[in-house]
Records
---
Amino acid sequence: MLIAINQENKLIQADDAKRGIPYFCPSCRQAVTVRQGEIKIKHYAHRDLTECDTLAEGESVEHLQGKIQLRDYFEQQGYTVELETYLPQLKQRPDLLVKKAGRDFVIEYQCAPISINRLKERNVGYASMHLPVLWVLGAPYQQKQLAGATQAKFATLHHGQVMNCFWNTSDPARHLIWVPWIKIDGINRALNKINYQRQLQRQLWQMQQALTCKRPEVRLLQNQMYQMQRTITGIPWYVHNINGLPGGLKGDHWDVKLKIILRLENDSQSFLELLDLVAAEEWCDFGGIQCELVQQMWLQAVLKEWLALKIIKWDEEQFSLAGKLKWYVDYQHKLADLDEFLWILRRAGMLIN
């Protein structure tokens, strides 16, 4: 805890506290002591935590340092920042309450695990006070590849993309790190320079593996393909994931895109009809943004790509196929056509260099 009150009921930051003077928790009004060891920075700690349910004692060095650094960062941007302001209506104490020109928002600097239910409770509380909240992830969340459920839990919309926000306490530049959550060929990653030929070959191999593993959802699609005298591996290259899509879909992107193509082969569809199809798939549980918004972004990205490649068209508020798509007899036949498909993508300006 970095903020306490003195006997005059004034807020005192731990750095300004003096030994020998009594300080109290602003929430439970119980006595706190000033602590500073060789490792932890100066902070307050309850003498007895049994009657305070708004604070979590034992904060890590990372958490304490991060809150102070984030305060300094936002103050340098011209904001007014309050550390650990107690909100009695919610019985919550956000790490930072940031203010500028009447636009208040909350920063939660997260280093420890938190359940999605608890996170949602906090978000709902802040929303009841019209306080947007940004969850900023510390070092423990930067040590490894984050699972989709974790990314969804802390995701936010920033500049029209689904993103996660990080803060590195050891980075001298000290700025917010925004990482887009983009999924491509089953991997969560931000896109940079990509070998598209290898990527598409990998996706084709993964489809082949999905068939041999006999995944139930793939088997259903394969049975549908057999009835149409087609195969999963023979689906058009356009169904593959080219430049990535917003994260959140639990399954593979290609099988949902295939379902859309099959639906369009039968009849033209409105955006809402296609959105219903997409929403019926299994999606991650988002903690801070509406899953429906992510689903719309996902579908819009797919349709925008296909419109640019001129394989679908938009007419009278309906999407339909612009012509017959090329299906392949087998794995090798499709692989032999990959160079031509890459040439089509380059001509359409679809590849990232």
Note: The radius of gyration is 26 Å.
---
Amino acid sequence: MSFRVVFFGTPKIAAACLQALLDEKINVVGVVTKPDRPIGRKQIIEKSEVKALAERTKLNIFQPEKINDIYDEILDLKPDLIVVCAYGKIIGEHILNIPKFHCVNVHTSLLPRWRGGAPIHHAVLNNDKVSGVTLMYMTKELDAGNIIYQEPLTLDSKETYRSLYDKLTNLSYNVLRKHIHYLFSDQVVSKPQDNDLVTIAKNISRADEKIDWSSSSKNVDAKIRGLYDEPIAYSVYDDMIVKIYEAEVSEMPIKGTPGEILTIESTGMIVACGEGSIKITKLQLAGKNPISIKEMLNGNHIFKLKTNFNY
């Protein structure tokens, strides 16, 4: 029997999961992804990675503004299973109840840690030592369903959002390929989450992107890594937004007030924190391209010793 699957997802990591289904010869009868949106300063309309893959493989594509708009279409597809990864919209209980084998979510954290829309960001922002992928049954409450399978992944000390995203993309692909056939069963073993261990990974706001120089160098470093390369941590210097792309904790013994520029050398610009200091190695001024500090020193720049970034 060829079981029927409807897939929900939008970005690169979701496309990897859709590819896993295709590589396992799963009968994907429909793909639901977010509508095309204008991207960047030029507001160019771009299709999602999932849509691009679905088009190449000639799958049936749906891009509703509201999920309720395609309830009847999903019902008509008669899915035995719905698989979801990083779709980006809440899926209502009436759709979750359609398939015989339920709805399964591929979530990029070890639940119940980091329920919500930004688990990868928060793992790095909080200096987590381990992350991973969870296969779980979906319920009305976000990311609260029973756990089917988890696979951990150890984080590197220099981990960034982007590097962890790429690692979890590969892991999600492998986990789904390994377990997809098991999901077509009434005998799947799952376990409830421990609600005492729940943490929430809220979506990153503009306020979250600003660096607080009064915090420790360890925390500032985690913020810069956790927001690289999306959406990028920033500070304000001389009333100008400065995005910080790359930095590291400095071992420099000189102290200063939080946000104070202590040294500017070709290897980096050292800025004081509430505890310790940070060496910035790559940044971007408003309207300019990202550059290394070495490149910055080859031309004119606005930064001066003993002046401060705002916090």
Note: The longest strand covers residues 240-250.
---
Amino acid sequence: MAGVTQPTDQSHFILPDLGEGVHEAELIKWRVSAGDTIKEHETLAEMETDKALVEVPSPWTGVISELCGEEGEIINVGSILVKYDTGGAGAGGGEEPAAESEAPPTEEKTDGDAGTVVGTMSGELTVSSRFARHTDADNGSETNGNGKSLATPAVRRIARELGVEINRVPGTGRGGRVTASDVHGFAGGGASTGQGAVAMPEAGGFAPQAVAIPTELPPIDDSDVAEIIPFRGVRRKIAQALDQSVKTAVHFTVVDEADVTAIDAKRREYAAVLGQKLSLLPFLMTAVCRALKKHPDLNAIVDDGNAQILRKDSVNLGCAVDTEHGLMVPVIHGANGLSVVQLGNAVAQLARGCKERSIERERLQGGTFTISNVGSYGGMFATPIINYPEVAILAAGRAKERVLAEDGRMFVGKVLPLSLSCDHRVVDGAEGARFLNTVVKLMEDPEALIS
């Protein structure tokens, strides 16, 4: 604020961007305490985003004067995470960061996106040298002397992406600072609640609008509760994604069965030659990739904002992985160019990365079709929910031995249940059935599948 002398011995470290599209993170564990002397790049805290566990490093050397958050708390990008006493004697001999001017960075000066964490999402992170540094003088007003809203570069970037004039957004953060939640709330057409509620941007084209949560919710019986589990991290992301999918895509499901007796024998031959375990899943993936080339309507995504269907050339195959943190869908990019063995190895590698929370965010995005292997846990048929904005998802049940009949003779074979859900706005019912029929035929003919 103009006319206020900026202190030189206090510095605020805001929570930076932890990855593209990440606006908040859960504080899992503090690695420092108030009064600790910390060096540059030492870990301050462990944070959990919707997909990964990350360690947030200190941008400079100094003495921790205050920790701004409790373990288990959701913290928005751009909120103050730690306060430093950088001018004290215990600064560890580190070089004191240079003070900035009183006015926060203008929109034209924040293209470098100060306050950004760069690196992989596996826990090894480095910090940009241009962290946004805020002083107590910043917290005295909603705007600076030029009528500009107080907001971090990360929040200003969010506003630009949503087409929001940030100077019109009422701030609910400390000292009237505009937070990411404020921007999302304003973009949704209403005042920010300050409680982290994210409003869905209005969709264009033929997408139906999201149904608002009723103001009067039914009464909740909170007696005899064994455990309270907050919607956080991966679980909340799953809930949001599924909610958006069922409110946007028009689901229909087709089911069928494939006689996989012959392909199962071929799988056993491959496993014996390779000396490693090989499931039916990579064979099914190969069948799906070939079927998508014949039925390209299903290898697509929907751009509801521009009322467009984007039919894809390459098959980027998502594979749902169940972890103790929740469902994750890593993507095998260019799956149509891989062999059965390569697909099997890719699935094992991605599943391991998901369970260890070390997988990169880039490998969790860009899918064009998804397979969910519900049979690994004993299920047969399912009604899978589409991984929006994709237009189709295939659920594979557990293959079981059955008594089958063919040309008047009976025999014991193995049958694989398959359930296909499609977005009826893009895929007609007949085309969905034809696609599934192609997959079944390929799974029943090993020579045609592997040739």
Note: The helical segments are 153-162, 180-187, 233-248, 261-274, 281-294, 340-355, 429-443, 446-450.
---
Amino acid sequence: MQVLSRPPSGCPALVLNADFRPLSYYPLSLWPWQETIKAVFLGRVDVVSTYDTVIHSPTFEMRLPSVVSLKSYVAQDRPPAFTRFNLFLRDSFACQYCGRGEDLTFDHVIPRSRGGRTTWENIVTACAPCNLAKGGRTPREAGVTPHRAPRRPTMYELQDHGRRFPPNHLHESWLDYLYWDIELEA
């Protein structure tokens, strides 16, 4: 990962909740500068840090925010939506049968042909070869076992898993608010 001293392309702002924690780690909660400026003028956020980049209008000048915090706390304890992305994130983007991270699909542990439903508790991430090999059988019949039993994750668990996948670059003004093991590059 690279830590940038200049604004990243497009000058996005890191968005923090009112408790100064990022709204999301993966994907990282970033807003385009235009949305950030609008939120500042609507009084929805406080500017925590700025870039050196300045925007101008005929009567106004402002440094672009690099970090903002919401004025109202957004609860993070709601159940996560069942989406392909959240499923892959729950399973750390790895096949639950062989551990590979390529060509990922999702697999019904109890096959749909046998009444298995599309729920957190019946779906695991599987690479295409493992999914194809398992076919319409149960894991026991196919001689495979998921590394982890499928279950509904909490938002906190998804956030924690998201910390394992830092973006390829961060702005130095964001570092005090993010919790990754980061090697600084010149």
Note: The CA atoms of residues 5 and 172 lie 6 Å apart.
